[in-house]
Amino acid sequence: MGNLFCSEYMIHRRFDLKGSWHGRSTDKPEADIDAATTLKDLDLNFFFRLQKAWFQEFCMQVDRDCEFLEQEKIMDYSLLVGLHFRSTSQKNDALFADSCSAPHQSPGGTNQQGTNLDMLGTRLSAVSLDPTRWACIELGTNMPAKAELILRRTNFDSEMMIGEPSGELYDVILFFGIIDILQDYDLTKKIEHAYKSMQHDPTSISAVDPKQYSRRFRDFIFRVFMEDT
């Protein structure tokens, strides 16, 4: 979490997203929620709209990371997302110059996709500063985007889970990466799955096998993040 949010920007809201919903809400009353509170799936009240090139790269990277984690029998990971609302910032808009507003290109003109671990939270912070100390944009770091407020559903629908778009948009700077990547689907997790499945919907709990976890995680993340049209 410290690596992902290592920035000159204040993180106004942070979300830990898994794609499951049993027990996935904060236990704080709304009045006590502040910038340091890590919110969860059922607390999510924004869609995130990315520029086309960034959205395509985001989808490819999430797919690569999830395939890697599934192969390694890893589950229980999260996408940690931090939002900085630009309307509250006194930073100069020149911070986001054209030279830093699209996916980085290699000398040959192709995207520098990196390894399967590019988005994992264990990587070093990707904040890079130019000579004037302006923050450059990389996938998951200092990314200008739009956050669209979600209309909360009065009745819970596990298929949608996150509500409907409201059309109310905010200019934000996004930080995100996959964290908690060391939990394999061991005997303890299998027992947890069996026990909780007797009490709750088996698809709602976090402890599921890596293949199901990866599929559910991607399905959810790709509903939360979308291309800005």
Tell the overall outline: globular
The ordered string of helix (H) and strand (E) elements is EEEHEEEHHE
Residues in helix, %: 10-25%
**Percent in strands:** 15-25%
Major sheet attributes: 7 strands, mixed
- Count of separate DSSP helical elements: 3
Which stretches of 5+ consecutive residues score pLDDT under 50? 89-102, 104-117, 121-134
Report Rg.
18 Å
Q: Would you report the number of β strands?
A: 7
| Main β-sheet, spatial strand arrangement | 2-1-4-6-5-3-7
Q: Which characteristics define this entry?
A:
1-phosphatidylinositol-4-phosphate 5-kinase activity; EC 2.7.1.68; 7 strands; 229 residues; alpha/beta; ATP-binding; PInositol-4-P-4/5-kinase_core
